[in-house]
């Protein structure tokens, strides 16, 4: 027999997928039912203990251009409908996916407003890759502020695409917007889709075709039309708008997340360029994973449930205007390390800011060494790059591909992969910050790519990926106008390998692998210099990396001291045992089961469901 009204079962059916993705936040949607004791220390002080089901209203809300957006308003239980603050989550994923993040806060007395973005699910119009998102957000927030139950204050939250929708709100800066909680997202649209000038094929194509399948091909065409960083990208960027931010934020990022670079840049801009009244008052949590849930097994103390409560509780403090986590500073992040049980690393730290590193260069040598001593002899390495046989993607900051610190050794012995290695380290090497590779390169082609991967080589021979990057040569200097290469001319180029916090342990080696492809993470350069939409012939490219005194190609590491990142002993994920975290996660599911009128376990028993989703 069915339990609960229509809609709640559809929400519950999203639960299994949610547990394996960013929507793990949904796990804390309920507060304690009277007959279900709360695990000690789990919920913040002042948590309401409602019973029964939420009171929801559905509206087709008209925007300024007449397009109506499907909007659901969820009211907190046992609370008068007056003088209420709303939390909005705008999403292309549908009502019963990560839009439910907003519902978490109803247990603290907030109104949750969930909205399908235009052109998605039950909303009218066409999906515009966030081009109408700022206007739609402004119109919706203005409507919320005018409702008889509203106190005129609105907060926003969102993960992934919903987080991008939160970032673009700063363009119009609605006066009613008072705080934000932004999860796994970026305020830099161009750099998400075209990092280093290269089309991020797997993310761009697979995400659009799966999220808006009827519009996917046209939207992919639109992205390729704008491979230059032109004005089309302005609505997806925070540049020039950071000073409009006059509200505090909590941000949640991940070292292997698809949006890592843009998220960290956006946080820094919020901290240093926002309105002086809130400058320096934002908080950031960086876990190892972000979207990369499957990478959890590589990190100790990092069950999905183990990483969720801190940012949730920080955002709750923010929204409620209280401080129950005074020991958590502006920047809290996971210091990664090898998977060896004895390895240094794999713990949390909390600081006022990221540590200031010593920028240390490791130079490429013709014999394959990677040393802190610059080369003196004239040398270079040359390889043939064939775009019909690109280097396959293995791990990294991906979505819908294998992700995380995967072993690169299966693809490192190719003839188009140049390896440079330190040899076993005599001491631990601690790095936190931005990774860069500077290459002096030439080619017989007018356009090609250069890629780099930094890996941790275990004594066993495994070569675990830390970060990677790419530079498409026709966009090497200016992303507004392509510049062809002159065959044979040497160019200095910088590859951004994004950021990390990692401990290379004594006895391990560092390896830098240089090539010209990483497919399908990035589109394979056809070496012909033509626009993405034109394609043209596949050409072989003879590519050279120069490594002599005049051309000191090198890796730059942000080296720190272990004392710069002290372990934070009271953080939720490290002070509790794995069993305690499993018990608390089980409690969350049990509560949601009662609060929604019954989860749909997809023909599984509840015990099978727990076994599958809490592994």
From TrEMBL:
Its keywords, alphabetically, are: Hydrolase, Signal
Under InterPro entries, the record lists: AB_hydrolase_fold, CocE/Ser_esterase, Galactose-bd-like_sf, Xaa-Pro-like_dom, Xaa-Pro_dipept_C, Xaa-Pro_dipeptidyl-ppase/CocE
Q: Which Gene3D superfamilies match?
A: alpha/beta hydrolase, Galactose-binding domain-like
Question: Would you indicate the residue range of the signal peptide?
Answer: 1-33
Going by the entry's taxonomy, the superkingdom of the source organism is recorded as: Eukaryota
According to the UniProt entry, its GO molecular function terms are: dipeptidyl-peptidase activity
Kindly provide the name given to this protein in its UniProt entry: Xaa-Pro dipeptidyl-peptidase C-terminal domain-containing protein
Any idea where the Xaa-Pro dipeptidyl-peptidase C-terminal domain is?
A: 316-556
Q: Which Pfam families match?
A: Peptidase_S15 (PF02129), PepX_C (PF08530)
Residue runs in coiled coils: none
